[in-house]
Model the fold of this input.
Amino acid sequence: MTLRELAGIGPKRVLAFAALEIETPRDLLEYFPFRYDDLREATPSVVLGARGGEDNAVGIVTAVRERRARNLEIVELDLRDESGPFRAKWIGRNRYVIGRFKSGMRLFVRGRVERSLAGPVISASTYRILGPDETYRGALVPVYHAARDLGSKTIAAAIARNFPRLLAEAPADPIPPSYLAATGYDAMECAYRSIHAPESPERAQRARERFAYGEFLVHSFASLRRRALRALESGAEAMSDAQECIDRLERNLPFPLTGAQRRVIGEIAGDLAGAMPMNRLVQGDVGSGKTLVAAAAMFVAARNNVQSALMAPTELLALQHAQKLGPLLMPFGIAVEPILGSQRASERKEALRRLAGGEAAVAVGTHALLTESTEFLRLGLVVIDEQHRFGVEQRARLRAKGGTPHTLHLTATPIPRTLAQTLLAGLDISSIDELPPGRTPIETYVLRMSRLESAYRFIRERVEKEKRQAYVVCAAIESDEDEGMGPIGAVEEAARAAAGPLAGLRVGLLHGRMSADVKDRTMRRFTAGEIDVLVATTVVEVGVDVPNAVVMLVLDAHRYGLAQLHQLRGRVGRGGAASYCVLVHPDDAPQSARLDFLLESTDGFAIAERDLELRGGGQLGGLLQSGHSGMRYGDPIADRPLFLAAAATAREIFERDPELREPGNTGLRAALLAEQNLRDLQLSS
Ligand code: ADP
Ligand code: MG
Done:
């Protein structure tokens, strides 16, 4: 059945629906309202507006005032119910309400309520004329995201009119019947009804939860299956001599590996020894020494005559990686080749030639690595730094450059274990949970904006007395036009500081809209000590390493997640010197108390957990979701308990019936087969 065959939908409307990506009756059925207007009860006029927001009233019209001003219609009614008088008004363009109302009529009105001296006034958004004896019987009205030429009411009407036919197009229920009984959820038909025409907000909520649960079940099962399939895969390079490489690498270092590094490198070496492609996530706090771990893996690869590629989210980080990997690997005759968007054409061409010919064993770059002109002779290992900045597709493209390479993901954003194991079930996880010794802990302060100048004085002292450097991080590139509303911009703050509190110091500016060239030059100057204070946006967030920088000043700190602030803090304290992180928030910032957690904890895992509790994992979202198709009904982080429950169910089902052959599991099987991006699951249809 097509949309066109539904009652009340002609060719024009089909186009309007297409703009909302509603192309089939099933799409329409699955187009859920984003809220409900509660028209069930009329509020007596004496308490009208007491709850704030929109409210409903039923009353008898006692006076009508109408006028027209250009194409504006203005209608004002006096009404009264048993408890007293109230007013309703309409002000709008072409609303066609003039002439509709007469004294003595009974009316239902809904809208935003303001309380004035003359009593409550409703700015009407909805009304209905009632018969003299008609009992008011309102409903919970679904409100849908609308499009041009297609209002929410039209969508609601199309669904209501065709509901039985739409239901006939419903997909099979992914929740097996035996589990449905245990969860107590309604059957699908009932649940769809509770979404589009609910009896109560609670029923609607429960139905929504049910769809989220079904979706989580599908995704969890997919993860389990993918993991199991990977175990059967082969074709990756099985590498030998890992231990010898690790020993040689370590002998060449000025320090011993930490216990955690040694363990994680061992886990990676174990993976590399097999023909099953590695797919491992290494998570470790800033400064935990992930680069070295990656270098060890690359060493093993080079020793086995296969090439490695490291992909970083920004040009700056790619460059730094290349600069760090070079000295680690060059002594063993392993050439590290940066591939950067900013390279001169001739330079780039030469680098590409060495990669294609196999002379260079390691390529380091940004997404420039993905362009077609980058060819490898034998790519066997792909390292992806801060994977959440890359989409699934980009990762797949890089991997496609080398048959079946081993893949290593590095991240400084720790993911709470329970979540990681279920959400990222296709990945193995290693944690570097130990920092190299001798780090002085970073002193952290939370300051009000009115004390900002004292922070600048502190920076000035560190620079003048100790020849140290500092970062000032802003939440925006430029300040908002609307004075005082948005965050302070880096451009303005750099200018202000250079002319005022930091006058006489060398102040630099770095932000994401600068060309790669300028960014690169600025960063080099900061690294070389030619800039004292770098005012920047969060481009310095990940990975940038300047040991002489000892102060991290973050403006508008209340705008960041805790995990992100922790990352920023990790930019300092990289040398032996005492280091400081100063978090500044506006004097009246809401939730600035949240920042205090960073005073208590330096444990990235604890901070990530806390972030998750406080913000529903805003910062983690990218990493966790990047590997998954956009979920439609649920958010695994916001609905964590539900997600974990669904994941447990998926495990039970998978253990008993991995191919989904049992009759009770046909719905789940159908849901998996229907997902475009789950094609790799190899379920026979
Ligand atoms: P990450 O990428 O995890 O933030 P890096 O790999 O950049 O950390 O390492 C941070 C700093 O610590 C670097 O300067 C590195 O040389 C140093 N480092 C790494 N491992 C050790 C170790 N085992 N002992 C002492 N210093 C180390
Ligand atoms: Mg790093």
Observations:
- Residues 240-273+288-411 form a domain with the Rossmann fold fold (CATH 3.40.50.300).
